[in-house]
Amino acid sequence: MSVRESLQIQLERGIAELDLxxxxxxxxxxxxxxxxxxxxNKAYNLTAVRDAGAMVTRxxxxxxxxxxxxxxxxxxxxxxxxxLPGIPLAIAEPGRQIxxxxxxxxxxxxxxxxxxxxxxxxxxxQQSRVEDVREQFDCITARAFASxxxxxxxxxxxxxxxxxxxxxxxxxxxxxxxxIPRGFELRATHALSVPGLSAERHLLVLGRx
Length: 209
Known about the structure:
Radius of gyration: 16 Å
Number of helices: 6
Strand content: 15-25%
Largest sheet: 7 strands, mixed
CATH class: Alpha Beta
């Protein structure tokens, strides 16, 4: 069995465990993204995760675990790094307008190459600080990007009225909850079970109060 075939089995099992129904062709495209990331990572050091199987677990499945909570026609992924969770979400639910934001030039170069090579329609990458982005979005994702106070302080203006902010965290950040800025509130906390990952994962759903 080739490495790609074993990664496909791992990914398909994980998707089934998450009880997700992805479009036809999504699994090969997710694996194409993983392969591209692995290739660029050798030269550009985009992620500390080097092992292909660990990338499937810690990048692809970790990103897909929040898919049931993503909503709206537009999404911004802040501090996206090499496109996490934005690119897996774009592949899993095409049709949404997605902006990937990162201040790191080499990561944004990779993002633009990934968008081109994977033919991700409606997905853009912007090299920018979060506070300098001037649009509004129905959904905002941020993966271990900063404290809740900093996240919302820098990027709160990006959340459209009625929009939902999805903050991906490891341990439940109870110490950060009292510092949520005025005008925002915690709507829900979900403990996520990522297939193949023993570490804690939590999703905090925030919105305008």
